[in-house]
Design goal:
40% helix
């Protein structure tokens, strides 16, 4: 069983499961633990993608049944209360197993609705990007650019916010990102300097193959960001670095991915 660690208390279980495992929309088996847990838990409590089991903080179908089906006012009166309590628990478990298929049917129906909503949102996103930004996201193969393209409708609020862009890069690549400000010139004349922003992604222990692919994806993303999210008069540089530690003479020096040796 896995838990959702992030603070997603307002996110529905159907939305999270469809986002994480879209191929399993009709394979989940749900168990309702009751809204009592909802006070201190998110909607989706735990899930297991191997068995397809899901536990949610919701009331099951049995909550709608009259309480007289389970017990009466005199159920616990008299002697032998412990045995009576055990019988009530057994009856409650039996009722829960009897109506659990209904819980599964309703949950799968809500999963179908979530799939339709996601499809409509994708269609709307494609329409907006095509119509207003002349950008066809269906033809994009770079996954980082595909995710960034979803922010194009908010480009007016993001363009030039270098700290926000740094946070977006850190989220996309799941690593630490630093940014520094400087000046850039493609000539030797100081009069033609323009502002420059440099982002360094601290990604450790990449293999040569994975570094080459990540660097290629990052360069494509840089061109996309330069076009849409970086002001036209600012030069943008993005590099991948291995570590973010200052060199110490008492320790071995480590060369990062971008080190150049000149003889």
């Amino acid at each position: 069983m896995k838990k959702i660690n992030q603070n997603l208390s307002e996110a529905r279980a159907e939305m999270l499961l469809h986002y994480l495992y879209p191929e399993m929309d009709d394979k989940w088996t749900v168990e309702h633990l009751g809204t009592f847990y909802r006070n201190f838990n998110r909607d989706l409590i735990v899930y297991d993608e191997e068995t397809g089991e899901v536990q949610v903080a919701r009331d099951s179908f049995t909550k709608l049944l009259p309480s007289g089906l389970l017990f009466s006012e005199n159920s616990l009166k008299g002697k032998g209360q412990q045995s009576k309590i055990n019988k009530l628990k057994d009856r409650q478990n039996m009722m829960h197993e009897l109506f659990q298929p209904l819980d599964n049917v309703f949950f799968k129906r809500r999963m179908d609705i979530e799939r339709e909503i996601a499809s409509l949102l994708d269609t709307r996103q494609q329409y907006v990007l095509n119509t207003y930004f002349h950008y066809d996201i269906k033809e994009e193969t770079n996954e980082y650019i595909r995710q960034m393209a979803g922010l194009l409708p908010m480009v007016r609020n993001i363009r030039g916010d270098f700290k926000l862009i740094r946070n977006i890069l850190a989220t996309l690549f799941k690593c630490e990102v630093t940014c520094t400000y400087g000046r850039y010139s493609d000539t030797d004349q100081t009069r033609s300097w323009i502002p420059e922003i440099t982002y360094e992604l601290i990604i450790e222990e990449l293999t040569p193959e994975s570094y080459e692919q990540t660097a290629k994806d990052l360069e494509e993303l840089r061109h996309f960001m330069q076009e849409w999210f970086i002001p036209f008069d600012v030069n943008c540089v993005m590099n991948i670095k291995w570590h973010n530690q200052s060199m110490n003479e008492s320790k071995h020096w480590m060369l990062d991915y971008n080190t150049e040796l000149k003889v």
